[in-house]
From TrEMBL:
InterPro entries: CoA-transferase_III, CoA-Trfase_fam_III, CoA-Trfase_III_dom3_sf, CoA-Trfase_III_dom_1_sf
Source organism (scientific name): Undibacter mobilis
Protein name as annotated: CoA transferase
Record flagged with keyword Transferase: yes
Pfam families: CoA_transf_3
């Protein structure tokens, strides 16, 4: 029996570049949609990001696996005319220009809806299609900075720390785009009408501030930098360097896990009640963890089962038997020099993806 994917038969026109839109379109492609990526002559900026393998950007290849590319100059009336047949049969459009750009080109939602009333048009931008900041330039660091999220734990002023993930791009752009496109498809099944979706990458950053919002709005005092339990104020949820320099990630929040952790490392009884002096407890834990290597600690924490792990470098995580057995890397991507590497893992259940 043929494995029919849930989005098979749907056509997506992808006008996006860099990360948020291309990743959203990739997830739709992985679930069976036909994705045509519209690129300007010369290609998009991501196509020149290193590493270049066989003349092709590996990053670009990862984000655009399974898509077709159509090169058009959107400022050319003749090239825009070539889009009309595609718009007429498209189900979904994703664009990532600043607000108003596509409308000025005659490719806004109203223009496309006049051709195809069933079209679902998703516009991804930093601050949304309306509001005082709608036309403001920005990147991920600006979006998490403008919404209070980065202030919750930027690290010391002398050495501020950036998160290791592009939170606004992916969790504020790509994921909400896919979620709302799927909701719009469901709504279209009932009404027969398409929709305009306004995705502002900044909006979902307030979602990530859920705990700080509850404390501030309901409790009357917003937390200062570093005060939240999950950003470093608690010795139960912290990174501790081991003797060999590797980090131990302690997440022993619940009392049973904390007691198991304390027993595993042999923490002195006077420090176990961390409410009395959290800093003293953290310092005592740090000294003990620093006395042994990560290799010595790993079996101890595994036996204790106390929400504590050794921070793994990415190359080690790729070899972890758990992730390998889960099939995260079975899909393959062919690079420009002919080599096969694992395709980018995406949060699409294997049953909805094509066979590897």
């Amino acid at each position: 029996m043929k494995n029919t994917q849930p989005l098979e038969g749907l056509l997506v026109l992808d006008f996006t570049t860099l990360l948020p839109g291309p990743l959203a379109a990739l997830m739709l492609a992985e679930a069976g949609a036909e994705v045509i990526k519209i690129e300007r002559p010369g290609g998009e900026d991501m196509a020149r990001f290193p590493p270049l393998v066989g003349g092709q950007s590996a990053v670009y290849a990862m984000l655009n696996r399974g898509k077709q590319v159509l090169t058009l100059d959107l400022k050319s009336e003749a090239d825009r005319a070539k889009l009309k047949p595609l718009i007429a049969r498209a189900d979904i459009v994703i664009e990532q220009f600043r607000p108003g750009v596509m409308a000025r080109l005659g490719l806004g939602y109203d223009d496309m809806r006049a051709i195809n009333r069933k079209i679902i048009y998703c516009a991804i931008s930093g601050y949304g299609q309306s509001g005082p900041r709608a036309h403001e330039a920005g990147h991920d660091i600006n979006y998490i900075g403008a919404t209070g999220l980065l202030d919750l734990q930027p690290g010391p002023a002398s050495q501020p720390v950036l998160p290791p993930a592009l939170i606004a791009d992916i969790a504020g752009g790509s994921f909400p785009a896919v979620i709302n496109i799927l909701l719009a498809l469901r709504a279209r099944d009932r009404s027969g009408e398409g929709a305009f979706i306004d995705i502002a990458m900044t909006d979902a950053m307030f979602t990530f501030g859920w705990y700080a919002l509850a404390l501030g709005l309901a409790g009357g005092r917003f937390p200062k930098s570093g005060e939240l339990q999950l950003v470093g104020s608690s010795p139960r949820y912290r990174l501790y360097p081991a003797k060999d320099g590797k980090l131990v990630a302690c997440g022993a929040l619940e009392q049973k896990f904390w007691e198991g952790f304390c027993a595993a490392i042999g923490l002195a009884p006077e420090f176990i009640d961390d409410r009395r002096d959290p800093n003293a407890t953290a310092e005592a834990v740090a000294q003990i963890v620093a006395s042994r290597s990560s290799g010595e600690w790993a079996p101890i924490f595994a036996k204790a089962d106390c929400c504590t792990t050794i921070v793994a470098p990415l190359e080690e995580a790729l070899r972890d038997p758990h992730f390998v057995e889960r099939g995260l890397f079975v899909q393959r991507l062919t690079l420009g020099d002919g080599r096969d590497i694992p395709a980018l893992p995406v949060p699409v259940d294997p049953q909805f993806r094509a066979k590897p």
